[in-house]
Request: fold
Amino acid sequence: MVYVPIARPNGATRLNAYLLVDLTDEQLNTFKKQFEYGTMATFATMLELIIKRAPADYLNKPHAYIRTKENEAGRDDPFVLIDEQVVSKNAIWYVEQFADETDVEDELAESTSVLWQILIETEHLPICYINYEVGNMDIREDLSNTGVDYLVPENYEQPNVATSALDMADFRRQQNADVIAEPGEYEISTDPKLLDSFAPRPESVARLKGDVAKKAGVLNGWTFYENKVLERVSDGEYPEGTITLQHLYYDPDFPWPAYEWPDESSTAIVGPSTGAV
Reply:
């Protein structure tokens, strides 16, 4: 039977997300759905959030104060703040760290009191976070793209909400899936014209049979493959002739199993008592 590994959050980073305002159940669910869409939660989870009520001490305080308190508590990872703009702009705050001496020397920030934070559309946060982590993009660069000018002052304002600039619907259809298929579930081609379109040029390529791909939740096409199973699974050995097809794509429209938020994120959270948004 064809096996499509679901990239569930075993290795996905989890960030704390503090609620600074009251949200109705409907507003909270809207936010969650937007985040799930952006993080491709049901099939290729990139990032998870642990939604928490903000400590009373964080309410109505500058974000720099919250960053300082998090650092003092030994929580120096980035975090998310959810305020009224999650409703008005479908956006949340991604809070990184204070500027360092290099930022000041490079004339990016006026001082080390500048807090690097950015208001990002909810569904774009996961890919922006990944880009920041791997160095494809930088929060300073994204701030500049939103209209924040260097030197960045301590209490800068962000003129526009940040996005990843990606078409998220298209991006969701470009997530790689390495698929294990048994004999009878795939076909092989050695057509020279087809092979010429690959680099490096292989001796043969494979694809799933059409009905198999549809039932497995895979966007099908000719691709590279290996005559071995790349991943161990719990239901026993595969028969001789099993292959692993590389670089197929998850079908985001497939009815994948529902995403489950981390246990620490209460489904009953309606926010701290600060007045409804």
About this structure: The chain has nine helices and eleven strands.
